[in-house]
Amino acid sequence: MTSTILGVAIDAPLRRLFDYRAPPSVDHQKLQPGQRVWVPFGRRKAVGVIVELRDRSDVPEARLKSALALIDNEPVLDATLLDLLRWSAEYYRHPPGEVIAAALPVALRNGTDAVATAERWTLSAAARTGAAEPIGTRATRLRELADYLAAHDPAGAAELGALSPRWRDHVRELEKRGWVIRVREDVVATETLTNAVARELGPQLTPEQDAAVSAIVAAHGRFTPFVLHGVTGSGKTEVYLRAIADVVARGEQALVLVPEISLTPQLVARFAARFPGPLAVLHSGLTDTDRLQAWRAARAGSAPVVIGTRSAVFAPLARPGLIVIDEEHDASYKQQDGFRYSARDLALARAQRHGIPIVLGSATPSLESLERIRAGRAQRLDLPNRTAGARPPTLHLIDLRAHADTQGFATPTLLTIRRHLDAGGQVLIYLNRRGYAPTLFCPGCGWVAPCPRCDARLTVHQRERSLDCHHCGTHRPIPATCPDCGEAVKPVGQGTERIEETLADFFPEFALARIDRDAVRKRGSLEETIERVHSGEVRLLVGTQMLTKGHHFPLVTLVVVLNADQGLFGTDFRAAERLAQTIVQVSGRAGRAEKPGEVLIQTEYPEHPLLQQLVHGGYDAFAAAALVEREQAHWPPFARVAVLRAEAPGREAPLAFLEHAKELLAGCDVAGVEVLGPAAAPMERRAGHYRAQLLLHAATHSPLQRLMARWVPLLEAAPDARKVRWALDVDPLELF
Fold this sequence. Notes:
alpha/beta; GIY-YIG endonuclease; Rossmann fold; 5 domains; 7-stranded parallel β-sheet; globular
């Protein structure tokens, strides 16, 4: 009989499967795709995942090795998830072993049991028939232990430990005498999804919320993408909860993706209050043990709801019923290194394979999602009004050219802040620039503190008395004088730390808090600060983009956007979209309760079309105009793009490699694909490496995929590919 050949994916940077014979001691009938195996790999032993079962191999018989052992009795990746991962590897042109590894907790990549097991002890057949070695009358502890097992067979460590502190010694002695056998048993989940019912119904739904929930529930059992476009404060989360309640009542599971770890605690709290059973939470901040436990709960079906960040899109589900992507527009859903996937796009592909509905929620839907609606590939659900009668905030542009700038604030801005504070409101100041100042400057000779490893300036962090690069992590003390001329240096510009200092000077009687990556580094500090805001203790709140995502501040009546202009003239074609989303999202923090909200946007370009559209027509007006521009310019979502990036310590090597890569395209099918470059990246030097890129542009993904399928093997075989670090980014979010 022909031996079974295993096509195994191994976590290695090679774009292929590896062939092995089946383990000699394993019944071939028990082998299934999705199981893990121990295999010899080079000079080490590695964990691999069976992807294919074949009856032949292209590897010569003499070179074909056998797998060492089968790890799992059942697949750790079901057929649907394994199919999604194989498709992802092909679509993103990434090594399949690394793709599959990304779907598994670290513990499983190292060979840990997929199913939780526990040691238990039972009487042997010899003990039951009287054939075991007799226990002497003086061995009272052994007799007690044997009698207990006879009455409580089998027993675990906790039960036996209650009998004697030396129970392990006694068990070992009984094993030697043939009385006891040790077994390992799977730990079966004690709580399942058998028609669980939500603990509470929640608030009364608005007519728009009710219509959205009804549409999602009606789509049960079939693939239906919904774009839930709800203004900030319209109750999108309540729609998620009601739709998920229907799923859980059917004995199915829901997968909920959020863009940031910081959003997870508050969302988990809301879900835990509503649904019975444990919730599985998956994100990068967990320990390996916690992540494994959550993975097991999701796979066993004991968790009715699985909540996580980007990588949770690969979470195993026993009975999938619904996928929800909160803040679907957020760039955090795109992995920017290694396996460069979009969790939003893979969630859509997964929902399609499962045949279940998927909800993409946002107050500022991505242009890709809006185009899906326009093309008839998604249904739009609108929540145009805030709940509880709250009114949308009014937006005002503050022309910095017409008003004096006082440490980052125009005079009308300071007066408006004072008015809201005196009226008892909270004020949120948004500036997407952490640190004290973006530049350390010498007035004498014009020297500006550069990063020695990047084409960037070092940021001043006053409290730490340091200069830091936010791109590579370079850290050094602030010099007392200019290293070129010896004159005194000074910080120029504003960061959140300096704005905090300025506000403390202007409004010393009001409590102030800052939320950015520097201020909330310690575990629990973010939650503590948010609690102070909710209690009303904090009256002034300063922060970066961390404040724009999902937070509910009912007492905030004024939002001030500083330095909005930095996103108006970006080189990336998505710069305007990101700025519009940020302004709308942060503006949505104002006026979410009974008090009306106000938003001030400081700008030197108040006549700019983007700002005018947002102020007078809202996000819909901006998005409509942006879609027309994208279509005319043939950029996504009306085209497909891939970027080949290369970097090396020297400037010449990346460009030389990309020139060679461009030459290799001549041997591929380039019909329908435009090649742009190569060119240096906008920030050419980063972390000591020079970077360059080559851009591929096509009207649809088919010609692009055909081209890459032929091109990537040529790139891997190219001699100069070893001289650079290169990566292919399909559907990039940023061109840098």
